[in-house]
Amino acid sequence: MPTFQDLEKQLTKLEPGGRSRPSGCVSRHRVAIIIPYRNRDNQLRSLLHNLHPMLMRQQLDYGVYVVDEALPSRFNRAMLMNIGYAEAIKLYDYQCFIFHDVDLIPQDDRLIYNCSTQPRHMSAAIDKFNYELPYKTLFGGVSALTRKQFVAVNGFSNIYFGWGGEDDDMFVRIKAKGYNVTRYPMHIARYRMLKHKPDTGNEPNPMRSANLRHAKERAEYDGLSTLKYKVLHLELKALYTWVHVEINETQIMQVRRTPP
Ligand code: UDP
Ligand code: MN
User: Fold this and answer.
1) Does the Cβ of 69 fall within 6 Å of ligand 1?
2) Residue 64's closest CA among 76, 56, 73, 74?
3) Region at 178 (left for phi over 0; alpha for psi -120 to 50; beta for the rest)
4) pTM for the complete prediction?
5) Model confidence over 174-226: pLDDT tens digits?
6) What CATH number should be reported for the domain whose range is 29-257?
7) How many helices (H) and strands (E) does the chain have?
8) CA 49, 51, 55: angle at the middle one, nearest 5?
9) Atom in ligand 1 nearest the alpha carbon of residue 100
10) Prior bond to 36 cis, omega within 30?
11) Cβ proximity of 105 and 194 under 8 Å
């Protein structure tokens, strides 16, 4: 496993903040890779080691954003992805957003990291699930939305603290706005899932099913439009842009969660 230093030596063509664009042509795709993150150093190294060379081969104009949630708040994957979106568009005119779990390694170069006319679920075939789609409405792992699509659905919900539900909530939002989820063919959408020890602060959320019941209505008043957070530190590192953020669970949960 390469260290961050090894990686920096290998990936000399990167611009600060984990940015790259093809030389000699203008890419059609300006893509921000948004990684919700806390305390998974080894996995981040492994992902960057695989992802950067692949994205360069795909001739994308891209940047990698690691949105790192400070302790002690419970982990909120969806909100970190909203924050990654909000911070990335301040830095560059991105048109496509790939929301990317840190533990999923793409295995096929034909798995192009761009966006389509419909939101795309990328990680359809994962080794852990025998490269089969566990259920048809799955939208977790890695997904791709244009800026327009993401704004239309009001981003992800902010109220899913702990593990589970936020990806299914997004599926509901997407359908509610008249979009359909697309996928690449199963022999292309292949990922390897890295193993990890149980995390603290990301225990299954007992509210996840209850929250899902109102997912459609809540999309109107919970999401990008009500996003609140504090950036503790933003740094253009060699391999990625590090966004260290503080989330206040009490403050977030004051927003309305059920329809009137
Ligand atoms: N994650 C993280 N640190 C944590 C918990 C989660 O970085 O303590 C991020 C990471 O990107 C991970 C994603 O959230 O891939 C989803 O969490 P997890 O892999 O535990 O969920 P599962 O794949 O089991 O649904
Ligand atoms: Mn995982």
Assistant:
1) no
2) 56
3) left
4) 0.97
5) 999 999 999 999 999 999 999 988 899 999 999 999 999 999 999 999 999 99
6) 3.90.550.10
7) 8, 11
8) 135
9) 11
10) no
11) yes
User: Token digits for 57?
Assistant: 């081969």
36 lines ligand 1 (CB under 6 A): yes
- Radius of gyration of the chain measured on its C-alpha atoms: 17
Q: What pLDDT digit, counting tens, does each position of 126-146 carry? A: 999 999 999 999 999 999 999
Which position has the token pair 């009490």? 250
Q: Which of 34, 35, 37, 193 to mutate to test the pocket of ligand 1 (most atoms within 8 A of CB)?
A: 37
Is 39 a pocket residue for ligand 1 (Cβ < 6 Å)? yes
Domain boundaries, the chain: 29-257
CA-nearest of 31, 20, 259, 7 to 142 is: 31
The average pLDDT across 115-136 equals 98
CB 81 within 8 A of CB 140: no
Closest-CA residue to 171 (of 207, 137, 147, 142): 137
Residue 218: CA count within 13 A, CB half-sphere: 23
Neighbours of 24 (CB within 10 A): 5
Q: Is 61 in the pocket of ligand 1 (CB under 6 A)?
A: no
Q: Are 21 and 252 in contact (CB under 8 A)?
A: no
Spatial distance between the Cα atoms of 117 and 89, rounded to a whole number of angstroms: 20
Q: Which of 202, 244, 247 to mutate to test the pocket of ligand 1 (most atoms within 8 A of CB)?
A: 202
Residue 103, ligand 1, Cβ within 6 A: yes
3-state secondary structure 201-232: CCCECCCHHHHHHCHHHHCCCCCHHHCCCEEE
